[in-house]
Amino acid sequence: MKWLLITSAGLYLFGSYSRPLFLAGLVAELIHMGMRGTALGRLPLIGPHDTLAFFSTSIALMGLPFLYARGVKKDSTLSWSIGALAALFALLALPFRSMNMPLPPVLNTLWFELHVALAFFAYGLFGIGAILGGLYLARNDRTLLDLQYKAALIGYTFFSASMVSGGIWGYYAWGTYWLWTPKELWTSILWLFYSLYLHLRLKGANADRLVAWAGIIGFGVTLFTYLGVSMLMKSSHSF
């Protein structure tokens, strides 16, 4: 099934020249996720291969409305940037072996799957926000900054819901809503960072460039929360 990830990555990269190609890439990746889920009997949300592929899918899926937003419908740079980011994580998934195993009892709950899926939808939106922030800094087009704020706001909502569902899962799994593991600590840092970001808009137009940069930095915090903590620190969360 890895050939579907390679196909979708290529289609994403050429999506700036033809939006139907971007859509075809998303369809290919959704088929990959569906086949993986059917083979496993669960959502493919465990291990680096499946989470990177799910991250890629989330970026493309969450980015789709922004590609057709008013003011950016013909922006090939935006569509290429979102496609390139999705393609990057699809290709990063390829070297890793798939973890073909049933869910352990501690993970075999709807709350776990909801927690992880919502978190990756939020990660995807934070990545799209970073792209929009970079384009705003390059072009000084206020439409892009407004879209960045919308992406971050929706992502923040998803992420907040992910934290709630994660707490419920934690209670069923370990008898407590919160454990101060590195992953949970950085989850808190990420949530607080975007809480601050959303309030920066109250400073008015004078803070526009600061808002754009904050959205870019926020994606860096997102990547460390997802990949950095998993690779560099011991935690009950592997990926």
Automatic annotation (TrEMBL):
List the Pfam families hit by this protein, alphabetically: Cytochrom_C_asm (PF01578)
Q: How does it sit in the membrane?
A: Multi-pass membrane protein
What's one GO MF term for it? heme binding
Q: Where can this protein be found?
A: Membrane
Q: Which GO terms describe its cellular component?
A: plasma membrane
Q: Which residues cross the membrane?
A: 52-69, 78-96, 116-137, 149-171, 177-198, 210-233
Could you list this entry's UniProt keywords, alphabetically sorted.
Cytochrome c-type biogenesis, Membrane, Transmembrane, Transmembrane helix
The family database entries (InterPro entries) matched by this protein are listed as: Cyt_c_assembly (IPR002541), Cyt_c_biogenesis_CcsA/CcmC (IPR045062)
Protein's name in the database: Cytochrome c biogenesis protein CcsA
Q: Which organism is it from?
A: Geoanaerobacter pelophilus
- Upper classification of the organism: Bacteria, Pseudomonadati, Thermodesulfobacteriota, Desulfuromonadia, Geobacterales
Report which gene this protein is encoded by: ccsA
